[in-house]
Amino acid sequence: xxxxxxxxxxxxxxxxxxxxxxxxxxxxxxxxxxxxxxxxxxxxxxxxxxxxxxxxxxxxxxxxxxxxxxxxxxxxxxxxxxxxxxxxxxxxxxxxxxxxxxxxxxxxxxxxxxxxxxxxxxxxxxxxxxxxxxxxxxxxxxxxxxxxxxxxxxxxxxxxxxxxxxxxxxxxxxxxxxxxxxxxxxxxxxxxxxxxxxxxxxxxxxxxxxxxxxxxxxxxxxxxxxxxxxxxxxxxxxxxxxxxxxxxxxxxxxxxxxxxxxxxxxxxxxxxxxxxxxxxxxxxxxxxxxxxxxxxxxxxxxxxxxxxxxxxxxxxxxxxxxxxxxxxxxxxxxxxxxxxxxxxxxxxxxxxxxxxxxxxxxxxxxxxxxxxxxxxxxxxxxxxxxxxxxxxxxxxxxxxxxxxxxxxxxxxxxxxxxxxxxxxxxxxxxxxxxxxxxxxxxxxxxxxxxxxxxxxxxxxxxxxxxxxxxxxxxxxxxxxxxxxxxxxxxxxxxxxxxxxxxxxxxxxxxxxxxxxxxxxxxxxxxxxxxxxxxxxxxxxxxxxxxxxxxxxxxxxxxxxxxxxxxxxxxxxxxxxxxxxxxxxxxxxxxxxxxxxxxxxxxxxxxxxxxxxxxxxxxxxxxxxxxxxxxxxxxxxxxxxxxxxxxxxxxxxxxxxxxxxxxxxxxxxxxxxxxxxxxxxxxxxxxxxxxxxxxxxxxxxxxxxxxxxxxxxxxxxxxxxxxxxxxxxxxxxxxxxxxxxxxxxxxxxxxxxxxxxxxxxxxxxxxxxxxxxxxxxxxxxxxxxxxxxxxxxxxxx
Length: 796
What we know:
Helices cover 39% and strands 21% of the residues. It has 23 helices and 28 strands. It is flat. It comes from Sphingobium cyanobacteriorum. InterPro entries: CheY-like_superfamily, HATPase_C_sf, HATPase_dom, His_kinase_dom, HisK_dim/P_dom, HisK_dim/P_sf, PAS, PAS-like_dom_sf. Keywords: Phosphoprotein.
């Protein structure tokens, strides 16, 4: 549409050109000069107009403000919760569904009280600002499980778009659908049983071939979405028939099995009475006797994979199928007299009352929460439905086999607990490393003033020896918390087992036999060979201690392709190709109540003074930091097995041979000259490092944090080497070095930290930077300073 100003532009332009030409003609008196001047004005104006068409002016700040009402309307039309935050972290727009799932409209990432989850979402947000998008999977919000997608958006990419999408959980409806349309549904049809699943609205969702053939005339008929009642008819005697069979059909007996619907996105749960149903139809036996019908129904229920049982009006159990027995934890051949015998004492009265209510009156169905006798700490849903016309049977009971679900819950809870313990262990190890640095450093300084034979020399050596033992414990804590420094290589698990086999034979002794077998076609893995050897040794030593009378230690390596992983249906282990290492023994086994705690640090069943409780926790940390998974299996009296799954390395260098580590060069003199700036927030560490470097001949300037360090750098003293802690208050080491490098691009830097280099790799990924882990001795600090100074460019 042409704007009014655009319509007036051309006449005004021509008028301006004529007026300009007239002025030139009046002043000069030349028609040619006046015409040329007017034509020039028209040409320049035309070019300016064309330039504005090609490069339109930028919108003003007022015009660039987004219309959030339109964005919110679009968000409300989707099935996900959507929020938008700006650079300042403010919530500028959110959908109504976001307010329903997160009451009060909290500003992402602070949408939950779970501190660890908020930190994970914050990390994902930072990644989205940096990379453009990020994702966090498996966020739990009430009854919901959500995937969070974060994307940088906007005209100038100054907003974050948060999308919370519910993850659809598999339900009983999916199982029934697969059952009816698969081989089991065909076998039901061959037995003369028609089966269909209908929704709460009465429409058909799935059916087996027998129902399709008799109700629609074709086994491949598509009747999904049609009204189930339209395929049935009832005569004047109340008997049920298929509508298509008209007068020649046989009367049918209908059995209804209520199916529990999945939770709605808002967390609500529909009642079983108006929910989906599994309908089973069989021809009425001759004579229509209830007893024969009940026998026929029992045969039918025994074929179904769902836990089903029947009880009479007095609550006595008449029948239960194998799936119900497994879900109830019954032994083979065991049959309870009453449903209440399956639950704990406190729930028996509630179960008996529910059975009586559903046995009389109108047909209805519902659920009650009970605690099973063999699992008193977990609630289970017991579904009940009243049935009529089956002789003595009056109530149909359904119990879901949730053993796998309970196992998954325990695994998730254990993984969450291990993560929290790991974070705590890593923090403790960091602080402890600072203390040990000061103790070991002061011991070294005192040893410089004493010689062997002095009265204090042996005492100082003892203190240093115990400090080094404590440093070993912190390294194990860092291994458990997945914060140690790894040197990964491309390797084969059989090669690692072969390298450590000789050592294992000496460790195991004469009473324990070592049996090693290797599978074929194992893929290469990427791991630290030294750490993997420590894993095998720790597991072997534990197995030896579990076999005091002797036995056999089996070590097996084998390939686990992705197809096999899917067949395992292991929720914790993602689908993929793995190389597995299994270490098994024939010892005493691990009790179930201890099995869930074995990877926790300082947990041990050995006698006092015979174990630190860090062996298996170290194994756990090394495996997890290498990207693998470890599972423990045990049965009392039949030994224990530890299975490690390491993902097959698929990089371009997967076929390369491990590179042999060169022998360390002999150490040169550690005395030196120059000025060193030492930045450390811990007073005790700063003091001992300053004294150690001063004794080596250096001039040392100190600072408490990064800001003070920059002030010293800006002073008159020329700094030859910067030694800094990584994690400090106010301004940390990497931030200080990044600013210092603008003015001093060639300044060598030596970082030191109680955290592992691997954990700090992203923050200290700066050119010409060395790293020294805490705790360190005086000689190690001197050598690190000498090597860092050697990287200075030669003037010249």
